[in-house]
Design brief:
The chain is an alpha/beta fold. It has 3 domains: 44 residues, no CATH class; 133 residues, Response regulator (Rossmann fold, 3-Layer(aba) Sandwich); 127 residues, Response regulator (Rossmann fold, 3-Layer(aba) Sandwich), CATH 3.40.50. Helices cover 42% and strands 17% of the residues. It has 12 helices and 12 strands. It has a 6-stranded parallel β-sheet. A 6-stranded mixed β-sheet has the order 7-6-8-9-10-12, with helices on both faces. GO terms for molecular function: DNA-binding transcription factor activity; transcription cis-regulatory region binding. Keywords: DNA-binding, Transcription, Transcription regulation. This is LacI family DNA-binding transcriptional regulator.
Length: 334
């Protein structure tokens, strides 16, 4: 029997186009040429598929549940017990409970399930969806946003994107970190972390812009986010003959803490020999010895904004993305 067309992705495969093209064609967007639009519309009629059929079902059937999904396409071994995830999830749970909603959590590995987002929102179990992190799934999220309104994403905002985002100004955060390191006389900066996730790439881009302007060298020390792998990779970086940097900007506080531990085991004075800055300002940042200088993103405010915008979108409103200003928290590591 022919496969049932349940999602935009299913219809896109039949039509031989991208899911975004299907979304735009069925929404009547002029960006799709007439011949392609007619083909897609004919297939949609043949399979009784409507772009907003899932959304209409949600309007008729209230579940009292908000779905929270964490895509880990950039690092499948990252854990949702990661302190950043748990901190944001805690604030989200508090906000949703206050508004009378329950939370359903899902961790996904996108390369194992390319329809991960369509399947989640089409399950009929959730009234709205919060995606934590764009990972390497920006295009997938964009495609779904064309036909699915009740969704808000924690992540990095790019000019012209279609999905609604709440997140920090990551590029500005990177600039703040680099400015602090350079003001502390650092001449060779290392960015610790992968630049594959969109948020991390923006943090590195901001730091690099400042370093290039000031004539300071900056390089990337690629590191996974899984704690065990990160610890081993950081040790390898310090064992390398190229570890002559005097300033480190870590993509997250947890990477910064692991880095601090490795430097202490090697008797590298912080901040005497190497300055160190993290990103997030998680509770652990103030508890290290010495306390960690970091770039704060207001996670509590972010959670409130995510829930507020989602509920407004569930009520049919159109909302703009919100970019929250980061702040440098100067402690003792830089």
């Amino acid at each position: 029997m022919p496969k049932r067309v349940r999602t935009i992705t299913d219809l896109a495969k039949l039509a031989g186009v991208s899911p975004g093209t299907v979304s735009r064609a069925l929404a009547g967007k002029s960006l799709v040429n007439a011949k392609t639009r007619e083909k897609i519309e004919a297939l949609a009629r043949e399979h009784d598929f409507r772009l907003n059929q899932m959304a209409s079902r949600f309007r008729r059937q209230k579940t009292g549940v908000i779905g929270v999904v964490i895509p880990l396409g950039h690092d499948r071994r990252q854990q949702i017990s990661d302190t950043f995830f748990m901190t944001l999830l805690g604030y989200l749970a508090d906000e949703l409970t206050e508004r009378g909603y329950d939370l359903m959590l899902r961790r996904v590995i996108p390369d194992k399930d390319e329809d991960w987002l369509d399947r989640f929102i089409g399950s009929g179990m959730v009234e709205g969806t919060i995606v934590i992190g764009q990972s390497d799934q920006f295009d997938r999220i964009e495609d779904v946003a064309d036909g699915y309104r009740p969704m808000v994403v924690w992540g990095n905002h790019q000019e012209g994107q279609r999905h609604c985002v709440v997140g920090s100004d990551n590029r500005l955060g990177g600039k703040l970190a680099a400015e602090r390191l350079i003001a502390s006389d650092c001449q060779s900066i290392a960015f610790l972390g992968s630049t594959d996730p969109i948020e991390f790439a923006a943090r590195f881009a901001g730091a690099k812009a400042v370093a290039d302007k000031m004539g300071v060298s900056i390089s990337v020390l690629p590191t996974h986010l899984n704690p065990d792998r990160a610890a081993d990779e950081i040790a390898e970086h310090f064992a390398s003959s190229h570890s002559d940097f005097d300033g480190i900007f870590a993509a997250t506080d947890l990477l910064a803490v692991a880095c601090l531990k490795e430097m202490q085991s090697r008797k590298i004075a912080v901040p005497g020999k190497v300055k160190l800055i993290g990103f997030d300002d998680l509770p652990i940042a103030s508890q290290t010895q010495p306390p960690l200088t970091t770039v704060r993103q207001d996670i509590a405010a972010g959670a409130r904004c995510l829930v507020d915008l989602l509920l407004r979108r569930m009520n049919g409103e159109s909302t703009e993305s919100l970019v929250l200003p980061p702040k440098l928290i100067a402690r003792q590591t830089a």
